[in-house]
Design a protein that fits this description.
4-stranded antiparallel β-sheet, mainly beta, 494 residues
Length: 494
């Protein structure tokens, strides 16, 4: 088998995670500010940011069916002056509860996964207001980055197994949840999932379907009823995981270790039958699926880091373009944790795929008088560069999500005068539009602003931050630890 039973992620040492943080220690330099406050000179800054052009984004968002994966349209808030809208602290953090996979947001709630529970926090300025808390039957093993249009999502959990060896850690139950209410809608035991672990289980949502794969089998369920639609078991070729959204894309691995060959298939989500197959070149060490529609692959060709992005035609799987990742950081893989935990196949926080362009972070610059990094747009059809958004010295920029022809980005702060910002950028016109200006708490800014350490979600005019792994202050070991922080617009109050 490709993965043996791993040491439990909930009890193992954090030394590997420390090494991940050390690689990006530079991000901690220059972080400042005490609390979320209105940025200095915000009013004057508005005039310096021309509005985004009248492009396809101006059209109203397409009405979605309740069981489609949610796609929302953003508009600029009445004022970019930032205001604290969510802040929740963990009071009783332990080695078993420090991991927080999963962050979702609606217009009313921020929802966080922590260890063996999901919690929803009301967007209520000045309050720490928990709307609901759902205790699960085990630790969270895998999460989807998506939710449905009516705010439902799924998680895979690791329930106790009587008589199982300590640390066996089998992740064989999937739970479907209403994020508005915290109600468990259904829970199912995955068939033949004896080798599903926190290291190899991946979960995806597409219209009406929840799909899970763990490299030794797979299963798909109907969202409405929880009924099993299809599943696979052992064989020469196995589904490693899925990317969801408007379509369902599968990564299939044939063979073992160095002789393994990869295929990418677009599946009929209701039957599991492939509609087309793209065969990845021999010698590729690993493959990620950052987008199912349009289909984009991130491949490790002779290296342990992503070397290229491959864009495909959605209708038949033909290759469109190959884009070298030399000098870029899509950040696919074991981001933020000390291993490939909680499902990593479709998660590349340094990369965003839009309908006809993709946006990827560059590597950091070592020159103190140059932009810390930039986000570069590429044409999906041609693979050519189509624009770039530059950060500032010591102020990195991170792509968050596509919104029509715009990209929503986050730019970190550096001091009490230069705030963090959420910005909409149109790579066709070069125009930028400010959404929010704010500061993050000084002690948490480095981890929250680093996409390897923190989860960042922008939704309904609010930006939310959650550290992937929470850590106690060594000087104050009993002090509460920040779990979720959200910022919205302070409006035009005077």
């Amino acid at each position: 088998m490709s993965y043996g039973p791993p040491p439990s992620v909930y009890t193992e040492s954090a030394r590997s995670a420390d090494r991940t943080r050390d690689r990006r220690r530079r991000r901690l330099l220059g972080g400042a500010a005490a609390v979320v406050v209105a940025a200095a000179l915000v009013a004057g800054a508005v005039a310096l940011w021309p509005s985004a052009g009248g492009d396809a984004k101006a059209a109203q968002a397409v009405r979605q069916a309740p069981d489609e994966v949610r796609e929302t349209h953003e508009t600029a808030p009445a004022s970019p002056e930032g205001e604290l809208s969510v802040q929740h602290n963990e009071d009783k953090l332990t080695a078993d509860t420090r991991y927080g996979p999963g962050l979702w947001a609606t217009d009313k709630l921020a929802v966080r996964g922590v260890a063996t529970r999901l919690e929803g926090y009301r967007i209520a300025p000045g309050q720490d207001d928990t709307a609901w808390s759902l205790k699960l039957d085990g630790h969270i093993c895998a999460v989807s980055r998506d939710m449905t249009a009516d705010h439902r999502t799924a998680v895979v959990i690791q329930p106790p197994h009587p008589g199982a060896a300590a640390g066996k850690g089998i992740c064989d139950e999937v739970v479907f949840v209403d994020l508005d209410t915290g109600k468990k809608l259904w829970q199912r035991k995955m068939p033949g999932a004896d080798f599903a672990y926190v290291t190899n289980t991946d979960l995806a949502l597409t219209k009406g379907v929840v799909a899970v794969a763990w490299g030794h089998g797979s299963v798909a369920y109907d969202m409405a009823s929880g009924a099993k639609l299809w599943n696979t078991s052992t064989g020469a070729c196995q589904d490693q995981g899925y990317a969801g959204g408007r379509a369902l894309l599968a990564l299939v691995k044939c063979g073992q270790s160095g002789g393994a060959a990869y295929r990418v298939q677009k599946l009929d989500a209701r039957t599991g039958k492939p509609r087309w197959t793209y065969r990845v070149s021999q010698g590729v060490q690993g493959v990620y699926l950052p987008s199912a529609d349009p289909p984009v692959l991130a491949v490790e060709a002779g290296d342990t880091d992503v070397t290229d992005l491959i864009t495909l035609v959605g209708t038949d799987g033909r290759r469109r373009a190959t884009i070298s990742m030399s000098g870029y950081e899509p950040l696919c893989g074991s981001t933020g944790f000390s291993g490939p935990f909680f499902g990593v196949l479709d998660k590349c926080p340094g990369l965003v795929v839009g309908r006809d362009r993709l946006y990827v972070m560059s590597k950091e610059s070592d020159e103190i008088d140059e932009p810390a990094n930039r986000v570069v747009a590429f044409d999906l059809q041609k693979g050519t560069m189509a624009g770039k958004f530059e950060g500032r010295p010591f102020q990195n920029v991170v792509p968050l999500r596509a919104d029509g022809d715009d990209l929503i980005l986050y730019r970190r702060s550096i001091d009490e005068v230069q705030p963090a910002a959420v910005v909409a950028w149109n790579s066709r016109t070069g125009r930028e539009k400010p959404y929010l200006f704010f500061h993050l708490p000084e002690g948490d800014e480095g981890a929250l602003s680093d996409p390897e350490q923190g989860q960042i979600v922008y939704e309904h005019g609010h930006v939310f931050f959650a550290a992937r792994e929470m850590e106690r202050d060594g000087k104050r070991p009993k002090a509460p630890v920040l779990s979720v922080l959200g910022v919205g617009s302070a409006g035009l109050r005077h």
